[in-house]
Design brief:
This protein has an 18-stranded mixed β-sheet that branches. The protein contains six helices and 18 strands. The chain has two domains: 134 residues, Diaminopimelate Epimerase, Chain A, domain 1, CATH 3.10.310; 148 residues, Diaminopimelate Epimerase, Chain A, domain 1 (Roll), CATH 3.10.310. Helix 3 runs antiparallel to helix 5. By secondary structure, it is α+β, with helices and mostly antiparallel strands. A hairpin with a 2-residue loop joins strand 16 and strand 17. The longest helix is centred in the N-terminal third of the chain and has 13 residues.
Length: 298
């Protein structure tokens, strides 16, 4: 049997945010078992918490998507940190732990409300700003929108803080909601441009009544993602680099994601440094436990 905790991540309300199954004691599970369990759960990711493998880390966290193991992902790190607190592995007043990921040691800073974990901040790698795409007509066609919906003052660009995503700035929140990704056309666009992006991230900085800095969607080739931590660090870096947010707001940004698919999420982003020299990238949020179960047969 394999016990798991079901979290909704980047939210404080059950049945919203991004779903995650965390297996806190996966001893005896093979890599094949973990892959099959992840496909069975049918969430965007599952995590499996093992004893540390590397000096200076607290645990080894393995992250699986239905397509296979990932070196790094955002909401699995945040949700697994809440699971570690729930299981008593990390307790107040401790302020930091180091997770061993496939990408390497990853710091997570934690904030407490008494003895309850209230918030977690993961540190991501410094940004790598990749190629820009000038083929806006083709990008618009891939997204099923008019070319005029794409912001013409800033680029369509690949950015990575560990995993690359293609960022498409749109003029309005309505345009973000209007997007319908053509998976085949998207794959061909990325291939022809020589990009390794994991998905197309569309967003708008148009203000709304939710006080979010940016309104966003992550459109993958398989499914839409309601909250994408690994893309939110690069998103924040893009916003700062291209001066879409005021300098004083870089340390307190919020990405509102998942609204269109009725799983609203709030992803917090902190960027330090200057537009030309970003020195620190953090993505944070909260999580809510919604279930505790067991896989009884493998």
């Amino acid at each position: 049997m394999a016990r798991y905790l079901h979290y909704d991540v980047f939210t404080d309300r059950p049945l919203t945010g991004n779903q995650l199954a965390v297996f806190p004691d996966p001893a005896g599970l093979t890599e094949g078992d973990m892959a099959r369990i992840t496909r069975e759960m049918n969430f965007s990711e599952c995590t499996f918490i093992f004893p540390p493998e590397q000096a200076g880390t607290d645990v080894r966290l393995r992250i699986f998507a239905p397509e296979g193991e990932l070196p790094f992902a955002g909401h699995p790190v945040i949700g697994s940190t809440f699971a570690l607190a729930h299981e008593g592995f990390v307790t107040a007043p401790r302020s930091r732990l180091i997770l061993g990921l496939g990408i390497g040691p990853t710091p997570v800073d934690v904030e407490w409300n008494g003895t309850e974990l209230a918030f977690a901040w993961m540190t991501q790698r410094p940004p790598q700003f990749g190629p820009t795409l000038e083929a806006r007509d083709r990008v618009a066609s891939v997204l099923g929108i008019e070319r005029t919906a794409i912001h013409d003052k800033v680029p369509v660009q690949e950015v990575s803080c560990g995993l690359p995503f293609l960022f498409v700035p749109l003029r309005s929140r309505a345009a973000v909601d209007d997007c319908v990704l053509d998976p085949r056309a998207s794959a061909a666009l990325l291939r022809d441009a020589g990009l390794a992006s994991r998905g197309v991230f569309v967003f708008s900085v148009e203000p709304g009544d939710d006080e979010a800095t940016v309104y966003s969607r992550m459109l993958g080739t398989g499914r839409e993602d309601p909250a994408t931590g690994s893309a939110s660090g690069p998103l924040g870096c893009y916003l700062v680099r291209h001066r879409l947010v005021p300098a004083g707001q870089a340390g307190r940004m919020v990405s509102r994601q998942g609204v269109k698919m009725e799983r609203p999420s709030r992803v917090h982003i902190r960027i330090s440094g200057t537009p030309d020299e970003i020195t620190d990238v953090k993505v944070g949020g909260t999580s809510v436990l919604v279930g505790d179960g067991r896989i009884t047969r493998l």
